[in-house]
Structure formats: C-alpha cells, structure tokens
Design a protein that fits this description.
Elements lengths: L10 H23 L3 E5 L2 E5 L22
Antiparallel strand pairs: 1-2
Length: 70
C-alpha cells in the first residue's frame, strides 16, 4: 500500500498512532530505568515490575523524498 500524506489520514487515526507511540516510549523508559508500571487488570490495579514489562519493537517507516533526483 502506498504511503498516504498526513492530510489524507483521518485525525483520529493520527491521534491513535501518536498515543500508541507515546505509550511505547513510556514503557521502554520504565523498563530501562527499572521503574514498575501500574495497570488495570481484572477489576483491580496490578503493578508490573520493570523486568516483566513487554516492549514492542518500533516500526521503521520509510518514505521517498519529495525532491526530484537528477
């Protein structure tokens, strides 16, 4: 699928992408600093130690340059 320009992507999709990227960043920071996280699970707050935090790998995004090559 060809990459779409930001103007063609709905605002709610861009917002969700930004939110997911921010969550991924925070999870990675907590894992690296050794800080636990708190999540809501099964109707109660559960603390997850840093060594058990699962971090997704960042997606690489590539696009072509808007400039024409000579």
């Amino acid at each position: 699928m060809a990459a779409k320009r930001k103007a063609e992507i709905p605002l709610e999709v861009l917002a969700e992408q930004a939110f997911k990227a921010a969550v991924d960043k925070v999870l990675l920071e907590h894992k690296q600093t050794g800080d636990s996280i708190a999540v809501w699970h099964g109707g109660k707050v559960v603390h997850i130690p840093a060594d058990q935090i699962e971090v997704r790998e960042a997606k690489a995004e590539y696009s072509t340059s808007p400039r024409k090559r000579k």
